[in-house]
């Protein structure tokens, strides 16, 4: 058995290398795969000559140039290396960039524009790394940079255009937001500026109007200068003519005339310095007014109560003025006699006084039908009374409307009425019949006034007693029970002492 085994081993030495069973099938499969791989490599044009990474420069030159025989120049076996550029991967290329951490370059996604890479990154690339790549897949760095810069420029141009298109509405919206944010502050500041400007301009307008009146009627050889010896608010000749009590109130004083102790003129002008009042006057018009108050002497004025104004104002005065309400009434125009204009109404104590004060000269100058339309535009009212309330009972009151500063001469005839009526009232005397009526009326009114005063005094005393009684009741309510008992006992003792008769003791002799 031993001989047979040894001879079998020696007789067939190849049987040691021949596979048997599954090993043979495995070897057959490996050989089949290897043959398929060689067939595939032989079919690829880029893999005509294999190239492997890691070869030295000398070996690369040998593969690139080839052997030369004598003077015969042999063409290189492969094309020269392509220019260095960054391109996208293609199915024909089987190699990628070297596995270096510093030079890893990824191709951008297809939906984004490629960004230019710096040329320094290509210094790490091996020129022989990509061979056999078609030239249409590789672009030069200059063209790549130019295309990328053009794309960036187009993007920037489109961006700037869109920004320019968007800047307009955005800036307008921001401006509107700022305006709406500070609208209240802007309105307040604007109002203050306009109010300040109007204050100074309005103040100046009022001063100019008052000075224009003074230059016309209170300077040398004027109406008041001829009728009064002293003009102005001082006692000297150089004293100012006007006294400004407010931004729209001016005073004028004159004295030194018979029948009167003095004259006070008050100019109440529009509140031009106040912006709100100025706007209100645009809606509700008002006039610049001047009022003359003449304080008559006690022995220079008889029983005279007279008023004249436009019809509506005359009725209002008759209801509100105490002296007109008690003594005077509306006077109807007489028949067959020249009378005042239809617009005017007279309120007087008697018709005799009204007829004597409305003379023909006055009708022709101011209060007639024709004269009033021309010269009576600024007339408001006249009120003469010896029963005025206040310290000065005998007083003449004239009220006129002031024209513009340039038309101050239009009220010359109205101002002339002041000295005319001072002399007329100072010399006027009632008839005996009219005086008896006025005296009877005055005595009756005096008795009524006295009764009213007595009733007022009685009411005041009763009111005072009621208040004292109320205070005592409140004080008693605050007292304690012991204090009330003591007070009642004291009051009882006082009553008993008062009820007991007084007895006198005498000594018997």
Describe the protein.
Strands 1, 2, 3, 4, 5, 6, 7, 8, 9 and 10 form a ten-stranded antiparallel sheet that branches. 16% of the residues are buried. Helix 11 crosses helix 12. This protein is flat. Among the domains are: 78 residues, no CATH class; 233 residues, no CATH class. The chain contains 15 helices and ten strands. The chain has 509 residues and is of the alpha+beta class. Keywords: Membrane, Transmembrane, Transmembrane helix. This is Coiled-coil domain-containing protein 47.
Order of helices and strands: HHHHHHEEEEHEEHHEEHHHEEHHH
Distance between the termini: 209 Å
| Rg measurement, Å | 64 Å
Percent helix, as a range, is: 40-55%
Counting DSSP E segments of at least 2 residues, the number of strands comes to 10
Q: What is the residue-averaged pLDDT?
A: 75
